[in-house]
Specification:
496 residues, alpha+beta, Cytochrome p450, five-stranded mixed sheet, two-stranded antiparallel sheet, 52% helix, globular, metal-binding, EC 1.14.14.1
């Protein structure tokens, strides 16, 4: 009898799931004509059709069957996926207002305390925090000590660190994390950290764990089944523990700034935010409060560290694999910059090959392949479909960076994608690693400066050498989820 009762109960649950799924599908069909896509299962949606370690590749494969605009169910949530350069540009650029909201991403929502900060927020909150962040970053780039000078200084410290390795094999991961993070730290916190600072190293380790965790299978499971995963133990919980540690560090720095704040002479981003908090302390719906300060700072600190440092780490691995390309950069550096002065951003326009290689590194590494989710702000007729307001949309940046219409060899590393027949740098509409439209990365300009100055400084001073046969170097991502993370490797920095 007990077995029969359990079986009957299980059948009731299954029937309820089927009914709920059917009702939701009918409701969505009534709201608009969503693009076609694979049939979802109750509760699971299309989860079984996604490869855990390569979700974005699974989504690209589905586009071959259902077209460049299709619907997939992540759990019980319908999501519209956009694939190829023309479609993504039409959405983000031509219809930027409609596609301009941030879509729901459970991991991001929990990490941002329900949509605070500049990355996860929407509406008036997003407008105010983004405007404030852009203006403040620009102001500190035009001050007595420009952002370029900060990067040049950090590049010198990094070159010194590499010189101290005396040509021995090293893992470059935290070398680049320390250098890149110090640039944003000097803007946000007002000073840099020594590379041996234990608290700083601990902070960077937690940041690295966060990026890897979000890109892992566990992170993806949380995004698809947040209510279930939120109640289960597992590695996904370490993501939030790491974020909490970083948030506490930021709170500590904010309190230190409060004690020494001079409203007439702001030293950094945090000072500016604290001054804005004072100015709006009597505004009931202000977005300038402690929660906003912590999350906006976390966004700048996190995004300003991991994406650029991972790109640099991946870039050197590619150059190890292609020593002929490295040698051409050496020649261009020697011709344009020489050995007696530091590279500056003005050199970029006179170094088309180096610039092309850096662009190709960003295209090929495809650090954020799915991009961040968007959400429709109103009903829209798009590509023949009536997509309702509130629908989550994934503009697949990977499909743009590997669009065969834009790039002759989409899955090969080829700097020629950005060089014309006269050897001059050539722009390409498919270059979209920072996304596009209203939600384009706030730190795009800073990131591009960092990539050029760090790579040119390293190659001005060192020749790269691999301790293993270059045929054994694997350019396939070690983790491939929210982000692409390169396989661990070591290299030697040989002084030139």
């Amino acid at each position: 009898m007990e077995i029969l009762g359990a079986t009957a109960g299980l059948l009731v649950i299954c029937v309820l799931f089927l009914l709920l799924n059917t009702i939701q599908v009918i409701q969505r069909q009534g709201k608009g004509k969503l693009p076609p896509g694979p049939t979802p299962l109750p509760f699971l949606g299309n989860f079984l059709q996604l490869k855990g370690k390569e979700v974005f590749k699974s989504l690209l494969e589905l586009s071959k069957k259902y077209g460049p605009v299709y619907t997939i169910h992540l759990g019980m949530e319908p999501v519209v996926v956009l694939c190829n350069c023309d479609i993504v540009k039409e959405a983000l650029n031509d219809n930027g207002e409609e596609f301009g909201a941030r879509g729901y991403m459970p991991l991001l929502d929990k990490m941002s305390h329900g949509g605070h900060g500049v990355i996860a927020s929407n509406g008036e909150r997003w407008k105010q925090l983004r405007r404030f962040s852009l203006i403040t970053l620009r102001n500190f780039g035009m001050g007595k000590r420009s952002i370029e000078e900060r990067i040049q200084e950090e590049a010198r410290f990094l070159a010194k660190e590499f010189k101290n390795t005396k040509g021995q094999p090293v893992d470059p991961t935290f070398y680049f994390s320390k250098a890149v993070s110090n640039v944003i730290c000097s803007i946000v916190f007002g000073d840099r950290f020594e590379y041996e600072d234990k608290e700083y190293l601990r902070l960077l380790d937690f940041l690295n764990q966060t990026f890897r965790g979000v890109s892992s299978v566990w992170g993806q499971l949380y995004n698809i089944f947040p209510k279930v995963m939120g109640k289960l133990p597992g590695p996904h919980n370490t993501i939030f523990q790491s974020v909490d540690v970083i948030h506490e560090f930021i709170k500590k720095r904010i309190n230190m700034h409060k004690e020494t704040l001079d409203p007439s002479s702001p030293r950094d981003f945090l000072d500016c935010f604290l001054i804005k908090m004072q100015q709006e302390k009597d505004v009931p719906q202000t977005e300038f409060h402690m929660l906003g300060a912590v999350n906006t700072t976390f966004d700048l600190f996190g995004a300003g560290t991991e994406t650029v440092s991972t790109t640099l780490r991946y870039g050197l691995l590619i150059l190890l694999k292609h020593p002929d390309i490295e040698e051409r950069i050496h020649k261009e550096i020697d011709s344009i910059i020489g050995r007696n002065r530091a590279p500056c951003i003005e050199d970029r326009s006179r170094m088309p090959y180096t610039d092309a290689v850096i662009h190709e590194i960003q295209r090929f590494t495809d650090i954020i392949p799915m991009g961040l989710p968007h959400k429709l702000t109103r009903d829209i007729h798009f590509q023949g479909y009536s997509i309702p307001k509130g629908t989550t949309v994934y503009p697949m940046l990977s499909s743009v960076l590997h669009d065969p219409k834009q790039f002759k060899y989409p899955y090969s590393f080829n700097p020629g994608h950005f060089v014309d027949e006269n050897g001059k740098f050539r722009k390409n509409d498919g270059f979209m690693p920072f996304s596009s439209g209203k939600r384009i990365c706030v730190g795009e300009g800073l990131a591009r400066m960092e990539l050029f100055l760090f790579i040119s400084t390293v190659l001005q001073n060192f020749t790269l050498s691999s301790p293993v046969d270059t045929d054994d170097l694997d350019l396939t991502p070690h983790l491939s989820g929210f982000g692409n993370v390169p396989c661990p490797y070591k290299l030697c920095f040989i002084p030139r």
